[in-house]
Amino acid sequence: MAEVVTVCVNPQCGERTTWFSQPNFHGTKIAAGKFLLSYGIILAGTSATKVFRALKHMGMTCISLTTFFKYQREKLIPSIYLHWKKYQAELLDELKTKEELRNEVGSSPAMEYAGFCRSMEYLLSLVAVKTFVSDRHSSITKHMREKLSDIIHYFDIWHIKKKVTKVLTKIVDVKQLQSG
């Protein structure tokens, strides 16, 4: 970090001003640029040694490996861990909500229909839906026909292919049994 000290040449003033090339983090003596360099190296998943060597070849000074590992050990890894724990708790809460929804509606097909209703209600509050594609879920089909008839409803071709294949296979099996 560069530090420039200026002193007023007026003998009556003598004011002294110090300027730093980067600020310190609030409440610490850690230069923000040094710390953010360490953070960037960790997030990029790169080698600190290679980064420092490249900076040295460009004629730039930076923190030492010892300082990098100190920041990593004392600040970065604990911060990342705390963030991960918070994120993990949010994910678990989301899973509990999904489990509660499943318990609330009773079965997997009922959960699919409830999820569809909630999602469609949310989507319709944001955008105009003109066309909707779904599998051949009977409750969703009925809902689209009776309550959302202004939206064109198509079936997913993969699900149709799957059903046709199943029916044709069953017909062939029955004919083979009858002729066999």
Order of helices and strands: EEHHHHEHEH
Rg, alpha carbons: 32 Å
Q: Please state how the strands of the largest beta sheet are arranged side by side.
A: 1-2
- N→C terminal distance: 89 Å
Q: How many runs of DSSP E, i.e. beta strands? A: 4
Shape: elongated
What portion of residues is helical? 55-70%
In what range is the share of β-strand residues? 5-15%
Going by helix content, strand content and strand pairing, the class is mainly alpha
Counting copies of identical and different chains, the oligomeric state is single chain
Mean pLDDT: 88
Describe the structure.
By secondary structure, the protein is mainly α. It has helices at 32-44, 48-57, 65-105, 108-126, 138-146, 157-179, and strands spanning 3-7, 16-20, 131-134, 152-155. The protein has a two-stranded antiparallel ribbon with strand order 1-2. Strands 3-4 form a two-stranded parallel ribbon. The radius of gyration is 32 Å and the shape is elongated. The mean pLDDT is 88.
Descriptors for this entry?
two-stranded antiparallel sheet, 6 helices, mainly alpha, two-stranded parallel sheet, 180 residues
Topology:
Blueprint (H helix, E strand, L loop, with lengths): L2 E5 L8 E5 L11 H13 L3 H10 L7 H41 L2 H19 L4 E4 L3 H9 L5 E4 L1 H23 L1
Parallel strand pairs: 3-4
Antiparallel strand pairs: 1-2
Helix pairs in contact: 1-3, 3-4
Brief synopsis:
The chain has helices at 32-44, 48-57, 65-105, 108-126, 138-146, 157-179, and strands at residues 3-7, 16-20, 131-134, 152-155. With 180 residues, it is mainly α. The model has no long low-confidence stretch (mean pLDDT 88).
